Fold this sequence. Notes:
By secondary structure, the protein is mostly beta strands. It has no helices and eight strands. The chain has a single domain, classed as Jelly Rolls (Sandwich).
Amino acid sequence: xxxxxxxxxxxxxxxxxxxxxxxxIECFWLGLGSIEVKIQALNKVYTEKDMKITERTIINVSGLxxxxxxxxxxxxxxxxxxxxxxxxxxxxxLNVPEYQLIIEVS
Length: 106
């Protein structure tokens, strides 16, 4: 029996402080799923095409068991806001039921 693929959107609001010029999004998850990142500013939407992306898959093999640990880092350079703003992070999760997320603004 094949497991059916599922697609889940997730959104998070976060603060971008005055003078910030970089946003770093890091995601960690188990399995062979994938995560797509989109950031919505007050007047612009940034997709992965606008970001520097690093992806890593660690494969643990023990006997007949294989375990995948995946990581994705998205680095976005932004024009510095003149005042504090709240932006929205949108994740599209494909076959990722559980994950860890880090949002860093500098």
